[in-house]
Design goal:
It contains eight helices and no strands. With 229 residues, it is mostly helical. α1 packs across α4, α3 crosses α4 and α4 crosses α6.
Length: 229
Amino acid sequence: MLNLQGYGPNILQGTLLTIELCLASLVISTVLGIIAALAKLSGSRVLNLIAQTYTTVIRGIPDLVLMLLIFFGGQIFINQMGPMVGYEEYIDINPFFAGVSTIGFIIGAYMAETFRGAILAVPIGQMEAGYAYGMSRFQVFSRILLPQMVRHALPGFGNNWLVLMKTTALVSIIGLNDMVRMAALAAGATRKPFTFYLFVAINYLILTSISLLILNWLNTRYSTGVIKD
């Protein structure tokens, strides 16, 4: 057993914060991913260009650099804009909000490609048949496109989720008390970094294992009735 010297509850509290960060970031990245994917597949050159620029820029810059740029750059921008609207006090961005927004923005670019490929994998003839049958756009999306898109998107979605979980470790550099930061504080106080970082690694492995079980269950559920070659 690892001797955490009383710092275990603090790290576990940081683990709960990490889980909250993961789930909130997943919501943002999924929404952004769907919007960007639909923009890329739309007939609008402007929307396509915006979505293409978004995914290219995000996937071309390291996550750590983006985290620092968005957090510190965003804080500077907001405080420069404040006086223009009559607000003179200093605005301090909440680290949790900054972390969720940044990670969601980053992973959203990868989700966009996942969802775009999943949409293209659905035979267009099925959607055309839905329109011919008299279905509305929403009905075609919810009854034909979405169920099949989910099945095709799950493998890539699962990979993105695992990457997202590991990316949350970066929020420790902006002062958020996740389990990595709590472990770093404990390691600094006790001078036993291996013990605490090993405990964090085990926590991440547990979260990853649970995620894989859920993803495998979802994959089995959405593959029911599908004939494999």
